[in-house]
Specification:
With 596 residues, the chain is α+β, with helices and mostly antiparallel strands. The chain has five domains: 4-178, Rossmann fold (3-Layer(aba) Sandwich); 191-275, Beta Barrel (Elongation Factor Tu (Ef-tu), domain 3); 294-363, Alpha-Beta Plaits (2-Layer Sandwich), CATH 3.30.70.870; 371-478, Alpha-Beta Plaits (2-Layer Sandwich); 481-593, Elongation factor 4, C-terminal domain (Alpha-Beta Plaits), CATH 3.30.70.2570. It has 14 helices and 31 strands. The longest helix has 21 residues, at 558-578.
């Protein structure tokens, strides 16, 4: 055990952690030169296309220092705020963390947030100053920021470059010397923490675990303490780039177990694995349950595909424990699921993964957050869906969730960032100059206001320099109303939204305009209306596609033409009363990007 080191990498998005992980794999000869490629651990097409890490990836490396052989278990983590749950799981399985900071960009909001999470778990922090080969690198200024943040010595900061490989041997030496070896009792009953799982269509569910006490053996009769299920370990092993079978995984090490589990519900991330005959007395205190920030409905385009969608969602949940879902039905869209996500990027990624990995084309409704409504009878109603909101005459007041947002930006953009946050009903609580040129702004603002396009707009006005992180604080009373969208007098519940009363008119107008552009013309006139309660606040009309019925009347009396036009008018009216309007998927998504 004294020669094992478990560590993770924490950094803000785009600070070069995947490239540095590549160099660590290369310098420890974990991967052949001919198999080497950029962002080796990002094995999903989506991760490569977008240049972001979505999933945590575990990999074991062998390293020799001063004639001693060491096992280094690296868990690479995502940097985007929407995937912070992945980071919390990786941190729970480690004793140390590499804190990577870009020498050109300095410390950003997500770095601070993940650092505090690591410090709460008592991890040893190794600060690394990455990308020092860049012409715009501000090595000395950024070192000052790191010293102020974690209170380390300047000499503890390792200058490195994932691109050129500079400083990689220093990082490996620091991991061996500074990260403590795992503590655990190899002779105690088996106790292992499950920190991730994936679905394999041939082998069933593969669970990744970190052994705290005892050992996990091949063919051992094991039990999951939370679910109470028991299985035989068909195969155990360690995670190199591919899975490498081993007969035994001892205390302190990280490995995988395949036990023929087919049902996604039977494996819970954060569960404790133990021996069936001699179980551990207490389960490991798992990490906190995920708190979804954004709710949206996901429906199959064809109602018959509902069961397939249920299966696909279950398999996705295995691989991404931060998604929660429950069945619901909608008058317009049939049966589907109400899903909770950590943010808008998370929602986009899940939708895209459903299409790519499971071939499911889905319709996503307008995302919203959960509110608490208090009725005139003093009952408390949790509102996850606009249709759950009680009628206006029965509501005493409604509370909405607030968050504490921390934005770090260059001094040049303070004005535009402040006006954006104030537009979004934010209240400035603090303003700190980290350096002469970098400012941290703190706001309390409603979660609903940051759900849609806040992050994109923040990046636009700060030319990509502002970084953003948030955590929920409390519920506060607000003037909220439910806005319905009606097509030809029929309510489309998938487009309903709960919004602030003062924004209702502007938003209703914008949505009607946007829908007018996106809904294709039909043979009949379509009225698009936005309403609050019984009051219509905005309207647009899509004119009918008209066939020239008078083209065959050349010459002759005008009454003949009028008769044909009247007949056409009556037909269009009848059509309008029975005609159905199909809303394209782009219309649902466009409502989220109204300011583009």
């Amino acid at each position: 055990m004294k020669n094992i080191r478990n560590f993770c990498i924490i950094a803000h998005i785009d600070h070069g952690k995947s490239t540095l992980a590549d160099r660590l794999l290369e310098y420890t000869q974990t991967v052949d030169k001919r198999k080497m490629q950029a962002q080796l651990l990002d094995d999903m097409d989506l991760e490569r296309e977008r240049g972001i890490t979505i999933k945590s990836h575990a990999v074991q490396m062998q390293y020799t220092l001063d004639d001693q052989n060491y096992i280094l278990n690296l868990i690479d983590t995502p940097g985007h705020v929407d995937f912070s749950y992945e980071v919390s799981r990786s941190i729970a399985a480690c004793e140390g963390a590499l804190l990577i900071v870009d020498a050109a960009q300095g410390i950003e909001a997500q770095t601070i947030s993940n650092l505090f999470m690591a410090l709460d778990h008592g991890l040893e922090i190794i600060p690394v100053l990455n990308k020092i080969d860049l012409p715009g690198a501000m090595a000395e200024e950024v070192k000052d920021e790191i010293v102020d943040l974690i209170g380390c010595e300047r000499d503890d900061i390792i200058p490195a470059s994932g691109k050129t490989g500079q400083g990689v041997y220093d990082i490996l030496r620091a991991i061996v010397e500074r990260v403590p070896a795992p503590k655990g009792d190899p002779n105690a009953p088996t106790k292992a923490l499950i920190f991730d799982s994936v679905f394999n269509s041939f082998r069933g569910i593969i669970a990744y675990f970190r052994v705290i006490d005892g050992e996990v053996r091949k063919n051992q009769h094991v039990k999951f303490m939370n679910t109470g299920m028991d299985y035989y370990a068909d195969e155990t092993g360690v995670l190199k780039l591919d899975m490498a079978p081993r007969d035994v995984i001892k205390a302190g090490d990280v490995g995988y177990i395949i036990s023929g589990i087919k049902d996604a519900k039977e494996v819970k991330v954060g569960d404790t694995l133990t021996d069936y005959a001699k179980p551990a007395e207490l389960a490991i205190k798992g990490f906190e349950d995920v708190k979804p920030m954004v709710f949206a409905g996901i429906y199959p385009v064809d109602t018959e595909d509902f069961e397939e969608l249920r299966e696909a969602m279950g398999k996705l949940q295995l691989n991404d424990a931060s998604i929660v879902f429950e069945p619901e039905s909608s008058a317009a869209l049939g049966f589907g699921f109400r899903c909770g996500f950590l943010g808008m990027l998370h929602l986009e990624i899940i939708q895209e993964r459903l299409e790519r990995e499971f071939n499911m084309t889905v319709i996503t409704t307008v995302p919203n957050v959960s509110y608490v409504a208090y009725t005139t009878k003093d009952e408390e109603v949790l509102v996850n869906n606009p249709s759950d909101l009680p009628p206006a005459d029965k509501i005493k007041y409604v509370e909405e969730p607030y968050i504490h947002a921390s934005i770090i930006t260059k001094a040049d953009w303070v004005g535009p960032v402040m006006s954006l946050c104030l537009d979004k009903r934010g209240i400035l609580t603090n303003q700190v100059y980290l350096t002469a040129d970098r400012v941290e702004l703190s706001f309390d603002m409603p979660l609903a206001e940051i759900v849609f396009d806040f992050y994109d707009r923040l990046k636009t006005i700060s030319r990509g320099y502002a970084s953003f992180d948030y955590y929920p604080i409390d519920y506060k009373e607000s003037k909220l109303v439910k806005m319905d969208i009606l097509l030809n007098g029929k309510q489309v519940d998938a487009l309903s939204a709960i919004i602030h009363k003062d924004n209702a008119f502007d938003l209703g107008k914008k949505i009607c305009k946007k829908l007018k552009e996106l809904i294709p013309k039909q043979q009949f006139e379509i009225a698009i209306q936005a309403g609050v309660g019984a009051k219509i606040i905005a309207r647009e009309t899509i004119s009918a596609l008209r066939k020239d019925v008078t083209s065959k009347c050349y010459g002759g009396d005008i009454t003949r033409k009028r008769k044909l036009l009247e007949k056409q008018k009556a037909g269009k009216k009848r059509m309008r009363s029975v005609g159905n309007v199909d809303i394209p998927q782009s219309a649902f998504m466009a409502v989220l990007k109204l300011n583009d």
